[in-house]
Automatic annotation (TrEMBL):
Keywords: Membrane, Transmembrane, Transmembrane helix. This is AtpZ/AtpI family protein. The chain crosses the membrane at residues 20-41, 48-67.
Length: 73
């Protein structure tokens, strides 16, 4: 076996470390963006439900984006 070949069963090589930071930034930005929009709607309409809905929608949208980019490709 040559030294630069992986010892595993010939699967895909692990993603570079930068990809993990990119996925984390996608996740955090979804929460912040949609949560911020929900918070703004809460303040504008004097309600308390849109922040929670925005955070949940941002989490789902972020996870879907990460799935499309890294798992499905």
């Amino acid at each position: 076996m040559e030294p630069d070949q992986p010892r595993g069963g010939g699967g895909q090589p692990p993603p570079p470390p930068g990809e993990a930071w990119t996925a984390l930034s996608h996740l955090l930005s979804g929460f912040l963006l949609f949560g911020g929009i929900g918070w703004g709607l809460d303040k504008l309409l004097d309600m308390r439900v849109f922040t929670v809905v925005g955070l949940l929608a941002g989490g789902v949208a972020s996870l879907y984006l990460i799935y499309l980019r890294y798992v499905k490709s």
